[in-house]
Amino acid sequence: MRLERSTILMIALLVVLGFLILYPLLMLVYGSLRGGGPGTQSGFTISGYVAAITNVDNYKVLWTTFWLSVVRAVLSMALAIFLAWVVTRTDTPWRKGLEFLIWMVFLGLPYLPALISWTLLAGPKGFINQFLMNLLHLDKPIFNIYSYGGIIWTSITFWASIIFILITPAFRGMDASLEESSRTLGGSGLTTLRKITVPMLAPAILGVTILVLVRFMESFETELMLGYPAGIYVYATKIWWLLGTMPADFPQAMALSIIFLGIILVLIFSQWLLIGKKQFVTITGRGFATRPMRIGRWKYVTFGLVILYFITAFVLPIATMILGSFMKVWGVWQAQPFTLDNWAATFENPTVYRSLWNTLIVGFGSATLGMILYSLTSYIVVKTQFKGKKLLDMLTWLPWSVPALILALGFLWAYVGGLPFLSPLYGTVWLLIIVFIVRGFPLGGRVMNASMHQLGKELEESSRVLGGSWLFTFRRIVAPLLSPAFISAWLILFVITVRDVVTVVYLYQPQSRVISISLLEHWIASEYEIAITYGVIMAVMVMGAAFLGRYLGSKQQIVA
């Protein structure tokens, strides 16, 4: 039987994606059964699993990881639901502007520099503590960011913006007549939110809650920066500690990675079961209303609360970040506390230029090549009759269930201790691009799938009738129509790549160091003043990308 070129291309794409995604995961299992690290001569053993299971401390770490993740997920979700309700369901003034401000918390503020800012704000000698101690004549600081409370606080302020972005479409698509019925029967705004809005949106809220819970369980930066100095360990930092000891305990670290991955997969499978049983119809053919709810004088209160959130989550950290980059000694006030020496030292170091160049290459390369790949994959899954499209769709979902640190270990084993011809890629920007492409598949694929479903078949059928191949149709018809979604997803992926440190922590070499790694290295070396200057540079990069993406998106909408 003769295969068409399009079918051959689809099969080739399936094989390539299968290799890129499955190979590192299989090598992860392989590495957990070896007695040494990648690239070393060692035999097969289960000693790592024995050590992981018999170590009582690991169970304490697991419990800490779980309860800390649950608390953060619940509180972050509660705040995000309130923000989404204010912006989409009420008559609060300047709602579009408020929505943009909440987006800026996610797009404009790199998380790692934000954490450093909070250490200067709420550390034992931070600005807030010094101010309150002088004001109230206290001997001890009130707040300690290096604690469970600090981890929870910083996680909530940042993650509420991400959850807001995920749940806002569901809030915006709900029929307002349901809420109006509640108000007619005497229900207040908060009562309606609690008894009508949230229950009706239970599937979307539950799905995002479990997703966020998984992300908190794999969280690394917050626990490393704020928990590690206080002796607080979670699974990710425990694995990092095992690999950072001399000699590195690879068997136990790899075994813990596989055990942790199994726990994450159980949570995701539970999500599928729960969501599958809950179906609520909020949009019907019987008159759909999207009118905002009138909340009277409370609209000024809700406006003020959203502004307060923006000031707390964005303005305070970014201002502290900029101020801290000019301090002579981090967190210490002197007669003349400010200097330009930090910036001079940063730009006199040639590694900063290499880090910036590598960051741009990895960011632009992974976002651009990734979005092209995600778009092709989405087109095959949504618009073609390819028999392997279900398998293709499953492959694109798989990286979502793998914590970033564990995925990095999988790539380490795959490109150091695996196939010999792949080892030259280790430590290069090309490997970083590959791992970010794999990491971005769930997000990029879902965005493009949603947009692809909105395209009717008529345009593609007309192209095929006139003799256009599916590749020509995709390039000349489908791609231009999907450009707004393409740009939005590209922007998010670029921002995520620029500020990501976990995914590349075991995969870089000095010549492929990116800006986030440079920041982390200076922070670990207690060079806090230099580290925060890198943080400001990161913030400028992501905010520049955010405004560029917003500009290009508006141009696309005008053209459309």
Describe the structure.
73% of the residues lie in helices and 0% in strands. The protein is mainly alpha-helical and 560 residues long. It has a domain at 344-403 and 426-560: MetI-like (MetI-like fold), CATH 1.10.3720.10. Helix 1 packs parallel to helix 17 and helix 15 packs across helix 24.
Short descriptors:
MetI-like fold, mainly alpha, 24 helices, 560 residues
- Architecture of the domain at 344-403 and 426-560, according to CATH? Orthogonal Bundle
**CA-based gyration radius:** 25 Å
Distance between the termini: 43 Å
Uncertain parts:
277-289, 556-560
Instruction: Please estimate the helix content.
Output: over 70%
**SSE pattern, N- to C-terminal:** HHHHHHHHHHHHHHHHHHHHHHHH
Number of H- or I-type helical stretches? 24
Mean pLDDT: 82
* Biggest β-sheet strands, sense, barrel: none
CATH homolog superfamily of the domain at 344-403 and 426-560: MetI-like
Summed up, what is this model?
This protein has 24 helices and no strands. It has 560 residues and is mostly helical.
What is the secondary structure topology, with strand pairs?
Elements: H1 5-32, H2 47-54, H3 56-89, H4 95-107, H5 111-122, H6 127-136, H7 148-172, H8 176-184, H9 189-200, H10 202-217, H11 221-227, H12 235-244, H13 250-277, H14 298-324, H15 341-348, H16 350-383, H17 389-397, H18 404-416, H19 429-453, H20 458-465, H21 470-481, H22 483-499, H23 515-524, H24 528-559
